[in-house]
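User:
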Amino acid sequence: MKAAPAAQKRLLDLAGVDAELTRLAHRRRALPEHAELTAAEGAVRAAKDALVEAETAAGDLDRDITRLERDIDGVRARTDRDKTLLAGGIGAKQAQDLQHELETLARRQSTLEDEQLEVMEQREALGGNLDHARRVLAESEEALAAVTVRRDTALADLDAAEAGRTRDRAAILPDLPADLLAEYEARHAQGKVGAGLLRERRCGACRLELDRTFLGRLKAAAPEDVVHCEECGAILVRTGESGL
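Assistant: Predicted structure:
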């Protein structure tokens, strides 16, 4: 294949743009905000789980308190009824039975009130845990929002840079012969560097130093000849910097 030296040199501009696009793609994949976002999302999930657990425990205690209040009210109502009966003038046997029941009710009420006090203390302590869980969730969601903004800003910057390089690439393509461009694009599609500058006996694509014999053949080749690196196969562009 032959191509004008100017066209071959223009190929280096394309390779430079493609190298920049590759770097931008790598930066997109390796953004630290990706890992930060994953960690922040995990923190929010953990905070939500902790809050649900605390709210569930609080709900259970609230139901226990309501049940105990209902049971205490029932005992008090029964006590009031028995006292009313006892004060109304009844037989000795019935009075004895009522007095025994009142003693039993008093013990039951004392037990229920002790249990109620214990549950209310647990509920009060859990209130602090609930407040803490809500604060942790709010802070986690704020952190998630902040890292999301940073990630989106970084991606927007990369989008703008990639759009610029893509426009640069499109401007270069019309300057290249179809057969030369096709060969370059075939290598580029495989993830390989399509072209490199020969400088100081090294290929600009693979950075390897080339053999003297091979360099001799390059020196003898016509400027229009399209040559390839013997190490990586990239199109090797010769300019005044090549030292041939």
